[in-house]
Amino acid sequence: MDVVAINKAVEADCIITEGFNLKPACLDSIEKAYKKRGIIILTDPDSAGERIRTYVTRRCPKAKHAFVPVEEATANDDIGIEQASPEAIRKALEKVRTLNWEPSNEFNGADLIKAGISGGAGASERRARMGARLGIGYANAKTFLKRLNHYGVTREEFEAALAEEVDN
User: For residue 119, what are the domain limits?
Assistant: First the structure.
């Protein structure tokens, strides 16, 4: 059903992983697509999706990444891309990021605390909204910091997303 949801949003070739049990034929398809024209990893915004993302990223280090926010991929007590609206999928694809294996060290834990997205009441919810704005998805504070530094988020992007958070 993920493919149906994606095809309602955009025209795309999709490779179905069938969960974390990535079969050799699936991995072969992913690697062929990666080598031929590149891939965008778009997985469910849950722990299983993150495991798939991590595994595929190790095999395809220059893959691009798109994240649909949890709240935009949840319906009927179910989380997944199949629950996302076409608009949510398009928004995620507009914010595609590439993992930089050499982190920038632009951000540190103090930045998260100062921004109110770590260590305080409501930090988790604010971090989720910031992750959606920045196109790096929801994560705990440690992983969020890692994504800020690995996905090329600039100080200007961070400040603009933070200003938007304050305005709302």
Answer: 101-168
pLDDT-derived band at 168 (thresholds 50, 70, 90) equals low
Residues facing residue 98 across a β-bridge: 64
**Alpha helices per DSSP H over 2-115:** 2-9, 24-36, 47-59, 86-94, 109-115
Output the six-digit token pair for 135.
């196109």
Is there a single domain that holds both residue 57 and residue 140? Answer: no
- pTM (2 decimals)? 0.80
Going by pLDDT thresholds of 50, 70 and 90, the confidence category of residue 104 is confident
Q: Are residues 94 and 37 in the same domain?
A: yes
Count of the separate structural domains present in the chain: 2
**Alpha-carbon distances of 160 from 9, 82, 111, 157, rounded to whole Å:** 27, 30, 14, 5
**pLDDT of 11 higher than 90:** no
Closest among 42, 45, 69, 44 to 129, alpha carbons compared: 69
Whether the Cβ atoms of residue 109 and residue 145 lie closer than 8 Å to each other: yes
Q: Residue 51: which residues within 8 A CB-CB, separation 6 or more?
A: 20
Q: Check residue 40 and give its pLDDT.
A: 95
